[in-house]
Each structure stands twice: as structure tokens, then as C-alpha cells.
């Protein structure tokens, strides 16, 4: 199956072959894997998103490939929103202190997301009225309890160890987003080659 046809001087086509194929293979792999994840949960009201775990220098292209595959982009960079992770919480002392610091130092229009791995942390996020609560590496039952506890007061993102095999069970917990680092950081390239024609 031909994906595309290009024309030009043979020398130029041969010079560009490896770089062009490397990019096309990688980006096609990302789009295809994303499409498989999106298709798996098509009948659930959940969005599949990427992460910032991208190849240095290729973030724009890799995130474009995720969109081509039917997924959504998380953040492009640190200015797109604040994600408070475990190290930030440890550095600030608590979720509340981290959220208060972010609110003091960023514009009020910036969304705040907090990574959690326990129900107690989810409760603390609710008290702080954050915009998005990430359920990180939780088992499905803890996720379900978290979604019930949140009860629509914040958007809910599931992350960590998201495989095709468990994806439908995760979607059934009622989360709004499922973020999958593997879409860009450990995807297999598709086997694509260049053929010269007369």
C-alpha cells in the first residue's frame, strides 16, 4: 500500500530517504497505537491523551501524530497548565501548600492539576478545589472510589500503567481522561520503506 508519492532528483530522494523514513515510521507508529487505544474505548465518554514524555526536538510532530490517531494532547509545555506531582508536594510540604503557592504565583486563568495515589490525597485536592485530579497508578477499585468521591467537582484523569488490556475497565470507572505516556515514549515504529520508480 502506497502512503505517499514524492518526486524530485534521485540524488535528493536518496539523501533524504533515511531521515524521512525514520520520522514517518515513528509518527505512523504513534498514530496507529493511539488509534488502537481510542478505538478500545470508543463507547465510553473518555478522552485518550498523550503526556510530555516525547522525543527531544520532536514534541510538536509526535503530539500531531497523537491527534491524527484520534487522541488529544495533554500539555505541550509547562505554560499550558500546572501539574503538581509528588516531588512538588514533597518540596512544598503538602498538597494544600503546593496549590496555595501555585495560586499565588500564576495567573488565575491557569488550570491546576494534582497527581494523587491515595483517596486521602484525592480528598485534600477536593478541599483545595483544583481543576483536575490525576489518579496515578491506582488499581481500578481505588479509581472507582475516587471518581465517586470527586462526584463531578473536578475533572478526573487516570494515568500510569495504562495498557490496552485494562483500558476498558479504567474507562468504566468514570474518569474523564486517560493519559498514556507509552503513546510517545515507547512506541514501535511501523515498517515503511521507500521504493524508486522509473
Explain the overall architecture.
The longest helix has 31 residues, at 10-40. A six-stranded parallel β-sheet has the order 1-6-5-4-3-2. It is 45% helix and 12% strand. It has helices at residues 10-40, 59-68, 86-92, 95-105, 119-128, 140-150, 167-171, 182-185, and strands at 47-49, 82-84, 112-116, 132-136, 155-159, 177-179. The mean pLDDT is 94. 30% of the residues are buried. It has a single domain, classed as Aldolase class I (TIM Barrel), CATH 3.20.20.70. Strand 4, helix 6 (140-150) and strand 5 (155-159) form a beta-alpha-beta unit. Helix 1 packs across helix 2 (59-68) and helix 5 packs parallel to helix 6. With 198 residues, the protein is an alpha/beta fold. The chain is elongated.
Quick take:
This protein is 45% helix and 12% strand. With 198 residues, the chain is α/β, with parallel strands linked by helices. It has one domain (10-185): TIM Barrel (Alpha-Beta Barrel).
Q: What is the number of beta strands?
A: 6
CATH superfamily: Aldolase class I
Main sheet: strand order: 1-6-5-4-3-2
**Number of helices, counting only DSSP H or I runs of 4 residues or more:** 8
Helix vs. strand class: alpha/beta
Shape: elongated
Termini separation: 18 Å
Helix content: 40-55%
CATH C-level name: Alpha Beta
Query: What is the helix/strand order?
Result: HEHEHHEHEHEHEH
Give the mean pLDDT: 94
How much is the radius of gyration in Å?
Answer: 20 Å
Major sheet characteristics: 6 strands, parallel
* Assembly state (oligomeric): single chain
The CATH architecture would be Alpha-Beta Barrel
**CATH fold name, please?**
TIM Barrel
How many distinct folded domains?
1
